[in-house]
UniProtKB/TrEMBL annotation:
Protein name as it appears in the record: tRNA (guanine-N(1)-)-methyltransferase
Primary gene name: trmD
Record key words, sorted: Cytoplasm, Methyltransferase, S-adenosyl-L-methionine, Transferase, tRNA processing
Organism: Mucilaginibacter phyllosphaerae
Protein family according to the UniProt entry: Belongs to the RNA methyltransferase TrmD family.
Protein's job: Specifically methylates guanosine-37 in various tRNAs.
A molecular-function term among this protein's GO annotations: tRNA (guanine(37)-N1)-methyltransferase activity
Amino acid sequence: MRFDIISVLPGLLESPFAHSILQRAQKKGIAEIVVHNLRDYAAGKQKSVDDYPYGGGSGMVMAIPPFAACIEKLKREREYDEVIFMSPDGETLNQNIANQLSIKKNIMILCGHYKGIDQRIREIYVTREISIGDYVLSGGELPAAVLVDAVVRLIPGVLSDETSALSDSFQDDMLDAPVYTRPADWNGHKVPDILLSGNTPAIEKWRFEQALERTKQRRPDLLA
């Protein structure tokens, strides 16, 4: 699976993609993550990628030419299943969206900045707009890193235990059950006896009940 990410600040993405699961996925050849510097596609000595908004108002708008030049170059090299714009007014990222994207082959992600990008880029090239929450960040790089992480960990072969992702919160529209590890007794705080019983059916029943109760208490909207 390949991700092509277009950013005016590619340095923001160096660390997220160079550690942990994302690093492992790239070393295994399961995922390929390429970050493209938008300024490389800007004209003029200043390599400017933004301009004042028509109609006045505060802030700057990311211009069409650099984005269009980069997108067109990439699309000549391969076909993309999705061209995603990270935007606070997109659909909110959830586990179902991550599952959908994890079976794609090529995904392009556009990272905005300033007041946003020229609407025509969104209308002409973007196939999907995704938000990571109802708040505004300085740019789309961190949301892009969140999206890539959520998707890549679902690809078979990335996690050491491939069944682990299937039991994550939200996979069954519920939160996960409480988890414990050694020691079984820490300063009088003990692991539930059922988890030490070795009775797998009883343990699975307990986990389901705990997950259901936690979801009822914390995210009842998921059960609706």
